[in-house]
Design goal:
- The chain is α/β, with parallel strands linked by helices.
- Helix content is 49%, strand content 15%.
- The protein has an eight-stranded parallel beta barrel, surrounded by seven helices. Strands 7-8 form a two-stranded antiparallel sheet.
- The longest helix is centred in the first third of the chain and has 19 residues, at 73-91.
- The protein is globular and about 75 Å long.
- The structure holds SN-glycerol-3-phosphate (G3P).
- Residues 6, 26, 28, 31, 153, 155-156, 218-219, 221, 238 line the site of SN-glycerol-3-phosphate.
């Protein structure tokens, strides 16, 4: 499974690439705002074009998702083309992030504008990351439209299930891939029992029909979810920096290090340093 860093924070992105385990970057408007606000609050004046350029250079040949902010098909296509034209020249690694359905409740944007924009941009050879996927059928339509990456939001599915059941939880709390029994019933929404279940169903669909799209498990908030995304066969997991960092932690590893360090034979060190 490839690991992308889900961040627009240049320091975090640089660190993940220095560790040598990052296979790409995903950003979204909220992540960009967080990164920009952090810099501005430190009194830095930020040139956004050069900031994004540095992200792309750091990612090198690995893919970076940059999201559109327009919501109608025409606007998303025009903006997607502009983003691609402006930034893909830097390192040849840009993909355009498009919501599967950009409509708000009852606005005049049609529900298929995202799909139309994906189809048009991929038709021009521009890779697209289809975002905000919450059902396997949305994933199926995104695959049919030619999305390179399809991003089911696992953590937000778990939030939704727990909210509906009026459970108390913290955003990063583990929620079992197999789902949870609540009031003697398996908690589910339209046949989805957890965020990882959604990821697994999306993987099954693209694999079953041989779509070239890759499933990019998103909105993952803890390390056990990463494990379950990998076991579900997700092609990619995009992770916050904190989750990447947590993946190597274990108290027995720390304890083992202390024991080995206490037992070091000085001559061994002399011989090998
Ligand atoms: O990649 C999507 C991600 O940034 C959303 O995460 O934790 O806000 O649901 P979250």
């Amino acid at each position: 499974m490839k690991i992308f860093i889900d961040s627009a924070d240049l320091d975090e992105i640089r660190q993940a690439f220095e560790w040598g385990i990052a296979d790409g970057v995903t950003t979204n408007p909220s992540l960009l705002k967080k990164a920009v606000d952090k810099r501005v609050s430190k009194g830095e004046s930020l040139d956004l074009k050069s900031y994004i350029t540095q992200i792309l250079e750091t990612a090198g040949k690995t893919p970076v998702s940059l999201e559109v902010t327009e919501t109608a098909a025409k606007g998303m296509i025009t903006q997607g083309l502009k983003i691609y034209e402006m930034f893909n020249a830097v390192a040849g690694n840009v993909n355009i992030k498009i919501p599967v359905n950009p409509a708000f409740q009852n606005d005049d944007v049609t529900h298929f504008d995202g799909i139309q924009a994906i189809k048009t941009l991929t038709g021009k050879g521009i890779p697209v990351n289809c975002t905000l996927v919450f059902t396997p059928e949305q994933a199926l339509l995104a695959a049919k439209a030619g999305a390179t990456y399809i991003s089911p939001f696992a953590g937000r599915v778990d939030d939704d299930l727990r909210k509906k059941a009026e459970m108390k939880f913290d955003k990063t709390d583990y929620f079992s891939a197999e789902g949870t029994i609540h009031e003697d019933m398996l908690l589910e929404d339209n046949g989805i029992v957890s965020g990882i279940d959604l990821v697994a169903q999306c993987v099954d669909i693209v694999t079953h029909y041989g779509f070239p799209s890759e499933i990019l498990a998103a909105s993952l908030r803890n390390t056990r979810q990463v494990r379950e995304a990998a076991l579900a066969g997700s092609h990619i997991a995009t992770l916050p920096f904190s989750v990447i960092r947590d993946m190597l932690k274990h108290h027995k590893t720390y304890e083992g290090m202390k024991l080995f360090t206490n037992d070091i034979v000085p001559d061994y060190v002399k011989l090998t340093k």
